[in-house]
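Quick review question:
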């Protein structure tokens, strides 16, 4: 089955295909300039993007959206972690959390949609904390991977192998649920 993944992020594609392989699937990247709704709901954003891609490419489409939630600032940065990172960078985020709890939760909504159908959305969560310093510069378009340390771990996502990261990652949890659903005949 042909699947398209509505993303321009090579890091995401690599991570997602690693999970989809367990269901005998592989997605190809479509870096089309798809309109992306600006919503405080990651579920709405992922569903809308998957639906748009399914209609545009006339085949099953995947999309995701991720939110990050700092315990110190309820609801923030929420559905807009990319904007917050581009605006503040690592230094700004560290200043924001200085002297405050560093606990955070990543949440990913992963959507699957076939043409002329409603999207099905799966959610994954990962609790952890924001590190004091970046472990390394992220080179795969996932800057928070350098500063997010999952619960019960002492390494940031960027320091883990893809397989180890998948054991914790909110994106992996969401797409694993999707892969199981597809493998079970979309029941």
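Suggested answer, residue by residue:
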């Amino acid at each position: 089955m042909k699947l398209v993944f509505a993303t321009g992020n090579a890091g995401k594609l690599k991570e997602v295909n690693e999970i989809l392989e367990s269901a005998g699937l592989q997605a190809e990247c479509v870096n089309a300039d798809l309109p992306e709704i600006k919503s405080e709901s990651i579920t709405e954003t992922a569903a809308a993007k998957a639906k748009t891609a399914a209609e545009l490419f006339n085949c099953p489409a995947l999309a995701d959206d991720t939110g990050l939630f700092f315990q110190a600032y309820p609801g923030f940065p929420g559905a807009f972690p990319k904007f917050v990172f581009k605006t503040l960078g690592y230094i700004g985020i560290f200043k924001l959390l200085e002297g405050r709890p560093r606990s955070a939760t990543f949440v990913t909504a992963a959507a699957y949609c076939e043409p002329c159908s409603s999207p099905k959305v799966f959610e994954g969560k990962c609790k952890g904390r924001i590190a004091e310093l970046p472990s390394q510069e992220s080179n795969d378009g996932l800057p928070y991977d350098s500063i997010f340390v999952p619960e019960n771990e002492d390494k940031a996502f960027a320091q883990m192998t893809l397989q180890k990261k998948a054991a914790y990652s909110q994106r992996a949890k969401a797409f694993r649920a999707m892969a199981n659903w597809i493998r079970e005949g979309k029941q």
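Why it works: The helical segments are 10-20, 42-57, 81-97, 162-168, 170-183. Residues 81-97 form the longest helix (17 residues).
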